[in-house]
Amino acid sequence: MTHYDFEVTGSKVARCHIKVDMVNDNFLELIGEIIGPPDTAYDGGKFKLEINIPDTYPFNPPKVKFVTKIWHPNISSVTGAICLDILKDQWAAAMTLRTVLLSLQALLAAAEPDDPQDAVVAKQYKENRKTFTQTARHWTNVYANGPHRECELEKILEQAKNMGFDEHKARVALSSSDWNLERATESLLTS
Amino acid sequence: MSDEMKSQDSDADSDYDQSDHMDDDDDYCGYYDNDTDDLDIDKPKKSDDPEYFDYELLQIEDVERFLNEEVEVLCSSQKILPSLAKMLLHAHDWKKEYVIECHSKNPSKLLIDSKVIPKVKFQQPISGPSLVCCVCLNQVSREMLHDLSCGHMFCGECWDAYCQVQIQQGVTLGISCMAKDCEVMVPEDFLYSVLSKPDLRDRYSQFSFTEYVKSHPALRFCPGPNCPIIVKAKEAKAKKITCNTCKSCFCFKCGIEYHAPTDCDVIKKWLTKCADDSETANYISANTKDCPKCHVCIEKNGGCNHMQCSKCKYDFCWMCLGDWKAHGSEYYECSRYKENPNIANESVHAQAREALKKYLFYFERWENHAKSLKLEEQTLEKITSRIQEKVMNSTGTWIDWQYLLDAAYLLKKCRYTLQYTYPYAYYMEKCARKQLFEYQQAQLEAEVENLSWKVERAEITDRGDLENQMDIAEKRRLTLLKDFLDY
Considering only B187-191, B220-224, B279-283, B456-460, which range has the smallest mean pLDDT? Predict the structure, then answer.
């Protein structure tokens, strides 16, 4: 394990906008970062990842989840858990962390709504794509420092905040109910 | 004394088990067959018994021999190694003839489909005497590198470590090449050549044997806890298997508890549903009810649903609390769920309530028979001790009282089938066939309860009457199975 090179070298990182850092002075706990790919709702966002390397690496996949909150059909909006084949049964020992981060970037550019991690997001993605894109861009802006603001959604959120709801909870409720204030309020009050 | 009792007990047990899958009359079949045919006209033959099934109970060694023979046939007919033959058979559900046919016609297509060889072989660029292993990224000399038929080369140490991790995680036959998107499987002989730990070799052969048995359509492990028995049958049908070692009774097709007349998918759906909804249903299936006439609290301590209040002597049905007289043998209404005819016009809430009501109706009956079955066990114990007592007092011999035990066993068998008619009825579409099913179910239910009542009061019922009742109940059970056990 000690001498496995993770093969994320400087030049490649710069080009692909991916990065890996150690948390403590060992290779078992890492923090990854990917930049949202251009021409997507995640454009320009900085997404932090928690990477845990198992003892059996590279014969078993690393355990990866999003630390930065994200609105995506294959990533849990609550826990950040990722549904990606190469992190499960399609992992191959010859893959590297670089492959993983690039695959995650590719996942942001092309979601797989038929194999969802977050059913609410996946439903919105399939049935109401415009709202989905706006919501994902809004989340990227708020949580991942993305450059694009969604003023329309912010206004609705402001109304919910004025009603006395916690900002994050209100955002989740609104996002989950296609930004229908009435339905969101109802779910906030009943939960 | 107590030892004697035990041995008698187990004798009775094994008698029962035999009669369970070889119909009682089969013992005489051979005798009559030698004679003229007209003697056994109205005897149930093997082909007449809807539950009859031809199977063998094997030990692990027998199964190993059986599998090796299958492999050997393929090896000798196609001139291939056993390691490859095993992969091919496993990949094609052990359809030997099919594999032989494909292999003689187009071997490379078969090998690609079975993930033995790749669609396209990978050409490793070889420059100089050493290469980088893509897993550990070390420079390794050429002879230290190994590849499968796909050509992806990795060093021996990585292959060893990889196989160890896989085996420790319980993966054996599904170990594939370490390269990205490569599906080629690691054959047994390759694995043995790279694996360094002998104890893992044993584990591999043990696990892979389990996998072979699981993938073989003619074999099934007995689901009993730690039971080493493997069942072998010619056809993969949903029929009853009784294990001679651990006495568990299960369905050959799906391996869960035997469930005729309900089929495998439906019983799975039903059991999942029951597990989900158990909280709601729990309070319903409480163990006590009030007497419908004098309202004294009654605890059910026997299997029979024909209750008689000990205080006011009122005869009633435990299930529907109705008068038992109305449960006369002609029309036993209590097992039939009456759907609200106007339900389609009702609101969503009312429909949900109706759906729950319907489910609870069937669940209550299912659960009640399951409980009765447990209580029937106690009846059995009581009967055994009662017989013991009688024999000790010289009122007849053990053999004289044997019919009582037979009756109790038969009651158990009938009640078991009756219990499993409820999931079947629950999932049945409303149609004429359902009406027929419910009619037969009601008939069976009435006779089972009559039998139960008579068994519990065996001393005051005379033997002829009881045996008559046994015959009726079993006939009802067989009629129902014959009509609705369709495979």
Answer: B279-283
Give B414's contacts (C-beta < 8 A, 6+ positions apart). Answer: B444, B447, B448, B451, B473, B474, B476, B477
Place of tokens 């029929």: B239
Closest chain A residue to B132, measured at CA? A94
Chain B residues touching residue A55 (CB < 8 angstroms): none
Query: If you average pLDDT over residues B371-385, what whole number do you get?
Result: 86
Average pLDDT estimate for A40-64: 93
Active site residue A83: yes
- The reply to whether residue B158 touches residue A93, judged by beta carbons under 8 angstroms, is yes
Q: Residue A110: is it exposed, middle or buried by C-beta count within 10 angstroms (0-12/13-18/19+)?
A: exposed
Could you tell me if B279 and B392 lie in one domain? yes
Smallest CA–CA distance from A56 into chain B, residue: B165
For residue B296, pLDDT beyond 80: no
Residue A28: pLDDT over 70 = yes
**Interface confidence (ipTM) of the complex:** 0.79
Q: Is B202 within a domain?
A: yes
Best residue in B146, B168, B180, B194 to probe A by mutation, most A CBs within 10 Å? B180
> What is the reported pTM?
0.67
3-class DSSP state of B298: strand
Residue B78 inside a domain? The answer is no
- Mean pLDDT (chain A, rounded): 87
Q: How confident is the model at residue B170 (pLDDT cuts 50, 70, 90)?
A: confident
Size of interface A-B (CB pairs under 8 A): 36
Whether residue B241 is found in the same domain as residue B308: no
How many domains, chain B? 3
Does A110 reach chain B within 8 Å, measured CB to CB? no
B406: containing domain: 3-50+261-484
Search chain B and give the residue with CA nearest A59: B162
> Distance (Å, rounded) from C-alpha B316 to C-alpha B326?
9
In terms of domains, do B182 and B328 share one? Answer: no
Residue B37 CA to residue B108 CA, distance in Å, equals 56
In angstroms, the CA B212 to CA A148 distance is: 56
Among A64, A75, A83, A144, the active-site one is A83
CB contact under 8 A, B136 and A4: yes
CA distance A99 to chain B (A): 10
